[in-house]
Amino acid sequence: LITKKSKVGLVVGKAESVEPTTHVEEITCFGAEIKRKAIGEWKSGNNIYSSVGHAMKALPREFAEELTWPKRVPEDAYVYLRLKELGYKMRVSSKARVKMRQVRNLGDSLTQSRKFVTKKKELIKYFSEDVLSKEYKLPLKILLKHFSLALIKNPYMTLMYVGIVFLN
After folding, report:
1. Which of 11, 31, 82, 115 could form a disulfide with 161 if both were Cys (CB 3.0 to 4.6 A apart)?
2. d(CA 51, CA 105)
3. Residue 102's Cα: distance from chain center in Å?
C-alpha cells in the first residue's frame, strides 16, 4: 500500500471491540459498530474518523519526516489533516485489525466525549474552521441510514446508545 509512487502517507487498520464485560460497555460496543459502518461508508472509509488512534497507523518515512508534533492536539486527527494538507492519501487496510475495549461506565464515556470535543478545538490553531467542518461533518443521510438499520436490528440497544450520546 505504501510506495513512493502511490503518495500514500497513512495506512490504518480496523478496530474491533472486545467482548463487553458491563452493560454500558455492551451499549458502547453496539454504538461503535453503528459508527464503524457509517464511517466505512463515508468517502469509502478514507476520512478523519477512520484515522483514530486505536486503528493503528503506518506512515512512510517521507511523510513522517514532514510532521511536527504540536502539544495538546489529538495526534490521530492532526496526522490525518496534515496528510491531506501535504497532498498525501490515506488507505484503510481490511487485513490489519486491532482489538479494543470500549468504555465500561458512564463516567468514562463522559470523559472520552469531553476529551474529543476539547482536543478537536485545539486543531483550530493549525487548520481552518472550514477544513475542520468539512472533515468532521459526517453526512446526516449516512448517519440516519445506519441508525435506522440499527433501530430495526435492536431497538433497545439503539435507544440506549442514543441516550448515552445525549448524556455526553
Report:
1. 31
2. 24
3. 13
